[in-house]
Amino acid sequence: MLRDCGNQAVEERLQNIEAHLRLQTGGPVPRDIYQRIKKLEDKILELEGISPEYFQSVNFSGKRRKVQPPQQNYSLAELDEKISALKRALLRKSREADSMASHHLP
User: Out of the domains of life, which is the source (predicted)?
Assistant: First the structure.
């Protein structure tokens, strides 16, 4: 079913958001733009309830905040250990992602 809110640019943006949020498009979909926006907002609230930490890092003002450097002093050995721990964690995540991707190949 082709949907059209009356503005091609807005329609494209709505469709992209609906696809990204994996909202079902096969069933009855509200044609009214306000109902569609409400449905998107409801889905975002649902996802925020599942993973609030993801949404806490989002800056809605549109401006980037300056990152304040930590006021902690580390020795070179401590920095090396932190870097090594990050490398290990990234390598583990990369391997997990590769493993999951290989299981989903046809």
Answer: Eukaryota
Sequence-ordered alpha helix ranges (H) in 1-106: 8-20, 33-50, 52-56, 76-103
Indicate the burial class of 36 (C-beta count within 10 angstroms; 0-12, 13-18, 19 or more). Answer: buried
Residue 91 token pair: 């390598």
pTM: 0.38
Highest mean pLDDT among 26-30, 77-81, 99-103: 77-81
Which two tokens mark 49?
């309830």
Nearest Cα to Cα of residue 32 among 1, 6, 13, 2: 6
* Residue 101 to residue 99: CA distance in whole angstroms: 5
